[in-house]
């Protein structure tokens, strides 16, 4: 399907050689990539259905270099697309033909580990998993754990407000990030938040987290680390009906039990993951729940008994409880490998990311099944069941004419269903270009205008990551129309555009 992106600025393209030379003066050595062949790895993120070579790729190593690159682009009216590890599934890092692609891959140092304050200060290119590995020796870890944690960067996690299997109890990225260093499009460097858990004034970190690279470029991050729980054990519970598994999720939460993680897979996902990892998943069930309980040993033993009873009351057919840390890790290994595992059973797939109220899970599953029959495409369901974050994987073959269009229409219908059930368009992958045209299904024109006004406060020229999130582009001057009273403009001496 063709997507509309902002029209290229021919005047900028005509100056490409001069722009590349200027950028090389700011980021010397191997910091600027300008040849077509070398820029190929940057032409898309993990939503590989959409590709666009950038005008030039810049890989700075310091905050000063980022500031100078952004100021240069600001002064010369050049668009900038920030990029982390490129694992985004929404097209958030899709380049533009007339834009600088600003990669943060060289920002990969952990600057400080402060166990007294239970924080880590890190650069944005450090992977999610590397933070936990850096503090594991002292019995700490970083809670949000996306399935791509071995590759995704903490800066990208901030951009998309990433989640993971343990976010039900310990929160999303926004609940675990305390501060950042942010470079505005103008080149100005801001320090927001810090090591303290609470900051005075507006919640600017709450605005920046999940802003998808539209407001600024993060060059340093301060995250909260937690002590590993005394005990963590997982239950692997099978059901003969998907709806029964959904009911079990609702009853566990309704009983006041908040698991460390609660994930769900349906039959296609179970079989794919088991063939890929050999985790010991039952193959004769329609749905599988992995429920992790953590805390003191006595507490976990009691919670296991309660969850077992709830599952049995919902019609569970199998139940296996981890007896060791290695076995618990194996349970999760299959779930975390579900996305690549599904790649073995279908030439292509689209991973969706809607969120619904937990109680609506059975209805959502039934609707997805109906849509699968309507479009004639298979679907493997993998859910963060505890917080209602759905990840249906729509299976298709891009080599068959029309199948990609059908897959995209199928995905759009799933997201519309999520909104109609009281949910939202995205749980952790972001809007990017994938869900951009669906934003009016969730937000009114007034809502979207207010969101764009917020962007204008950070990026008045609209140069940072344009074409993403908002279905209709407005210049900031259009959004902030001047009110004329009595035939006179306010502040008539100020220049206007």
Automatic annotation (TrEMBL):
PROSITE patterns: FAD_PCMH (PS51387). Its EC number is 1.1.2.4. It comes from the Bacteria. It is an enzyme of class 1 (oxidoreductase). The keyword NADP does not apply. It holds the Pfam family FAD-oxidase_C. The keyword Lipoprotein does not apply. Keywords: FAD, Flavoprotein, Oxidoreductase. Residues 50-228 form the FAD-binding PCMH-type domain. GO terms for molecular function: D-lactate dehydrogenase (cytochrome) activity; FAD binding. Gene3D superfamilies: 3.30.465.10, 3.30.70.2740, Vanillyl-alcohol Oxidase, Chain A, domain 4. Its cofactor is FAD. SUPFAM superfamilies: FAD-binding/transporter-associated domain-like, FAD-linked oxidases, C-terminal domain. This is FAD linked oxidase. It comes from Nitrobacter winogradskyi (strain ATCC 25391 / DSM 10237 / CIP 104748 / NCIMB 11846 / Nb-255).
